[in-house]
Fold this sequence. Notes:
It contains 21 helices and 18 strands. The chain is an alpha+beta fold.
Amino acid sequence: MSxxxxxxxxxxxxxxxxxxxxxxxxxxxxxxxxxxxEEEDDGDYTVSGRGPGGGKDYRKPKxxxxxxxxxxxxxxxxxxxxxxxxFCMVLGSVANLAASYQIKPLIDVYIIPNxxxxxxxWSGLASRLLLLAGIYLVxxxxxxxxxxxxxxxxxxAVNRLRKDLFDxxxxxxxxxxxxxxxxxxxxxxxNDSDSVQMAMENTVTTFxxxxxSFVGTVGMMIYLSPALFLITAVMLVICTFIVKKIGxxxxxxxxxxxRALGIVNGYVEEMVEGIKVVKAFTxxxxxxxxxxxxxxxxxQAATNANFYGMIIMPVLHNIMGFGYAITAIxxxxxxxxxxxxxxxxxxxxxxxxxxxTIGSLSVFLNYTKQxxxxxxxxxxxIVTLLSATAxxxxxxxxxxxxxxxxxxxxxxxxxxxxxxxxxxxxxKANRVGNHYAWKVPQDDGSYNLVELKGDVRLNHVHxxxxxxxxxxxxxxxxxxxxxxxxxVGSTGAGKTTITNLINRFYDVQEGxxxxxxxxxxxxxxxxxxxxxxxxxxxxxLFTDTIMENIRYGRLDATDEExxxxxxTANAYDFIMRxxxxxxxxxxxxxxxxxxxxxxxLNIARAAVAKPPVLIMDEATSSIDTRTEKAIxxxxxxxxxxxxxxxxxxxxxxxxxxxxxTVIEAGEILEKGNHNELIEKKGRYYELYTGQHKxx
Length: 695
């Protein structure tokens, strides 16, 4: 491998590592807290992977009853589909039992008498066959209606569940996302929701129809011959015992299979995402060997799981076949001896009695074949039901999280300002210029208007993500409207935390942050965030056109405003060189664009918002020098008349800042402009001259 290729790959690796590390203590410390909470769990679960698509979580449900009740609440939103489905299940099960029973009159009335009769009498046979055909038609129609009803029910209920889950995610605080991997959250929408949907559609149907079929079949068997049913009852007890033993083993093996599959999927995903590094460092041989090992482990686990899963049916079939043979022999003896079954009167209902005929034996044997099927079907659905319940618990766990607290009363409103500087609240349609003001409620019920200028001050701010581990200690920063304030310091020093506090992603524990003289904790979060824009190092573009991605900065922006924003950001020229210009579709987070082009679109998105306060968090750290100059020209135009907070590793980008703040370990070491700090010959001087490097 050439030295140049190694250098490029090492630079890419360093950029990735820097990006990960720059998530600040917010990630590392909240992850530690989350890990501590997980260690306190009972550990009774198997997780098959942490990445997206990493398989199912087979956590045993902790509150099965409560979870099922909550799920049933979603089902009740579409109760008519449920009622229709249940009605069809009952009618279909009764039709199946009735169809089987029609064997008795066909044999006893039409077949046996005509075997020895000199004159054959087939009168009534046609009507009996038509009745049987009608019963089967009812069975087919009810099965169809049941399938449609339960499919509609499950899809609508899970659709509502996903909607509620997504709505909840939109109001959760940033702290929640800092402590969880994205793949874990996504699995709630995929694996867990799919498990719930399958259970609603199939498991509920199977349970109800199997119970009805089993009870009905047992009832008919007792009605035909209580004595013969004793043989079947013994076989059912044996079958139930075997299903419990083998089913329990099967459940364990399927968990191992799912875990092994999740590990294989996670490894493949990791290798595909890092294919450049794999090839650059000739890691292919090692990667193939590791994949073969994991794949073999999955094969072994899958073989064991499918062995136990597939063996149940043959075992049950043979046991019930043995019982069938014994029943046939005993039933034949009863028919030959013209056995008359004793009758029982239960609650006024006569059960049993009458001559046990060949037709009775045929029907009874048919029921003997059917009676074990509901038990096996229910046992097969137990694992699915437990998986769905566990998945629903994971969904409800997120839905039960405390939403982001917002006690702010101050709102942001458009205003008109006259020649004397008097402000009048208006709406966007009648606004002159781009003026906004804070609408501050007073104790007497009136409101004061405070012009939005972008004056931001941090006074004696203290903050900690985890109790006892301070991140910021007595931080004081002042930014007047139009000033550019820069933060420099090592990774983990607290730079990004300051911007998170200004955005109110977190709230300060001590001190205050004033925005135009108003404590940010008194401002509604949506209005606060509407007044400022953050440009991050890692851009995120949505699957849509370039025009719509720019418009994301302000959803009511016109096409002309979006085009003007692209010109301001110095992005217009490269956009027009694309095949579809502003209508070019962006997919996969802008994989068809360079990193510099994506960042220019990010700046254009900020430009269309026209914010009074701009936060740039390592916005150019992963860009080459040539592209950086183009981006800087776009940012310079954007920063005009804006209060700007800049976090940068490249000190050349902050030389023109009005105030450079050097922060380490949560404390401000020194402040001043470039020339003042160079003259001090302190930490900034050491950083700038290379005597001390940023971590």
